[in-house]
Amino acid sequence: xxxxxxxxxxxxxxxxxxxxxxxxxxxxxxxxxxxxxxxxxxxxxxxxxxxxxxxxxxxxxxxxxxxxxxxxxxxxxxxxxxxxxxxxxxxxxxxxxxxxxxxxxxxxxxxxxxxxxxxxxxxxxxxxxxxxxxxxxxxxxxxxxxxxxxxxxxxxxxxxxxxxxxxxxxxxxxxxxxxxxxxxxxxxxxxxxxxxxxxxxxxxxxxxxxxxxxxxxxxxxxxxxxxxxxxxxxxxxxxxxxxxxxxxxxxxxxxxxxxxxxxxxxxxxxxxxxxxxxxxxxxxxxxxxxxxxxxxxxxxxxxxxxxxxxxxxxxxxxxxxxxxxxxxxxxxxxxxxxxxxxxxxxxxxxxxxxxxxxxxxxxxxxxxxxxxxxxxxxx
Amino acid sequence: xxxxxxxxxxxxxxxxxxxxxxxxxxxxxxxxxxxxxxxxxxxxxxxxxxxxxxxxxxxxxxxxxxxxxxxxxxxxxxxxxxxxxxxxxxxxxxxxxxxxxxxxxxxxxxxxxxxxxxxxxxxxxxxxxxxxxxxxxxxxxxxxxxxxxxxxxxxxxxxxxxxxxxxxxxxxxxxxxxxxxxxxxxxxxxxxxxxxxxxxxxxxxxxxxxxxxxxxxxxxxxxxxxxxxxxxxxxxxxxxxxxxxxxxxxxxxxxxxxxxxxxxxxxxxxxxxxxxxxxxxxxxxxxxxxxxxxxxxxxxxxxxxxxxxxxxxxxxxxxxxxx
Lengths: 379, 323
Fold this sequence. Notes:
The complex is a heterodimer of chains A (379) and B (323).
Chain A: H1 7-17, E1 46-47, E2 51-53, E3 59-61, E4 69-70, E5 81-84, E6 87-90, E7 95-96, E8 98-103, E9 117-122, H2 136-139, E10 149-150, H3 153-163, E11 167-170, H4 179-190, E12 195-200, H5 206-212, E13 218-222, H6 228-235, H7 239-252, E14 255-262, H8 270-284, E15 290-294, H9 309-321, E16 327-330, E17 340-341, E18 348-353, E19 356-360
Parallel strand pairs in A: 9-11, 11-12, 12-13, 13-14, 14-15, 15-16
Antiparallel strand pairs in A: 1-6, 2-3, 3-4, 5-6, 7-10, 8-9, 17-18, 18-19
Chain B: H1 7-28, E1 37-42, H2 53-68, H3 73-80, E2 87-91, H4 103-115, E3 123-127, H5 130-135, E4 148-151, E5 161-163, E6 166-168, H6 172-177, E7 180-190, E8 194-196, H7 214-217, H8 220-225, H9 228-233, E9 234-245, E10 257-258, E11 262-266, H10 269-286, H11 301-307, E12 319-322
Parallel strand pairs in B: 1-12, 2-3, 2-7, 3-4, 7-9
Antiparallel strand pairs in B: 1-11, 5-6, 7-8, 9-10, 9-11
Helix pairs in contact in B: 2-3, 2-4
């Protein structure tokens, strides 16, 4: 199911939330009405929360590990943060370019309120450049190049509550680049009975991560490969900080799931998958769900074929053999690897086809057959 | 049917061929590139921002003539552009009203193109956004006037294309509309690239330049310049060096600026930047500042561009021809 929120819904929700008076004021322009288009030549500039000032009007971004040093009038690699006279500003706070209600399985989270809808939002921009990005039309563009609506955090939380949607998901592009927006949306969710979750590449510095993590119900990290070379050549990022992020999330107690998109010939070797599975087992434990998903040719990797099913199944077997209790397959609708089984007795607990949950037999987070506790956010 | 020609028929063909030769040459011969050569003409910095249009025209014309060695601007423009061309003039207005190409200089180039027979509707001055053009004093218009003046805003190709390390959507003006390009930049220091002149200005042709500033923009700027859209269409670089900036770029910094008093032109886009590098380093040295290399931001992309065969990137090898 994918249902767009209408502008009317948003306006009503915003009124119900009585948020307008509390809206953050952009530095150089009055914000448009809630739900109205953000003018491309009047982006909602707002001082960034994680940076430091350098001599001669330069700034150093302290949000992601790139640590961009940015001169006046320039932007960081993400394209959404700009140095304006020595003040680093985010240009996407409250400027949502995408808002949809998706099933949580689409993120994918398989251990978070199965079958629940999630109000999902994003802004333009990303701090890496994956050559296989499926959302490149928003992630690889600057905010003035992508149509957006003015949806401040309170409006998002209120819209979710009004729609009866229990989850708010920052997703699609890269939430790290709109981290202030994520932080404040998560805070707004607290009073609205909505749980905020994040779908991220995990390429973030530790301090901003720790600043926001306590507010989040769950984080899904795209672990794009298990080699620095892949990260350098295909992602324009680094593996090591992503692994650190995953460890911090796991240690925090926030629910964590990991997705690995297997791309033929680039990150799908048996040795790499095995090394990844072993790292997960030894550093995070065997109960973190790991999803192996199928690649489809897109963006700058249109020359490669979709991932063969045999590769996905081999990776699934490796993960199981290495002791990962919840290995899944993705983008292969109807495959048994989409469903959740009890690692104790083998009983099927949650039967999925694609993003649909056909059956969920969990009782209070336990296997109804053997009583084993299944980790996750179930209620 | 007879398969051979008699002497009379042969002679007629020869005469026809001779008559057609100049036109064929015009159609088929690529525009001349004077490798390593940069033409410069003096133009004193005025008290305010605007320069006298007559002096501006004279300076641009002289710089073009010096850059091509063809004696006069009319011959230079005729060698570089065809009457059928649609010419895009990319201006770099990031520096705002104080550090963008002057309207008078750009207008002078447009006038020279018009003299070549290119109608005003096919001379298109453009920048990333209409807002930037307006800030720099350009009259944004989609019809009328001696040239059109438009922002790319969001009019990019729908799919990216790749050249070396870059993968970008190009402005449709560049990929589709224009048959010839001019990079009309300024002479300034750049915090990451080292130098922003003719090549750095080309980042405004693509949708995602922010991804390509690592390692002093190397090899990205060279990769962009070697993309077929640019390599086949870029005919000329013109630089407004009336006032240049040796420190604190790319934004305008009055304390980093100085009156260089020159307009520069080159058919070799790499040479134009190498010349700008030399000018900036000379001023930095005069002020006791470290050179760009010492400041750890040499424009490395120039050596890469030279390796790609795009021009001469070594400042020491540049031939500066004064008008």
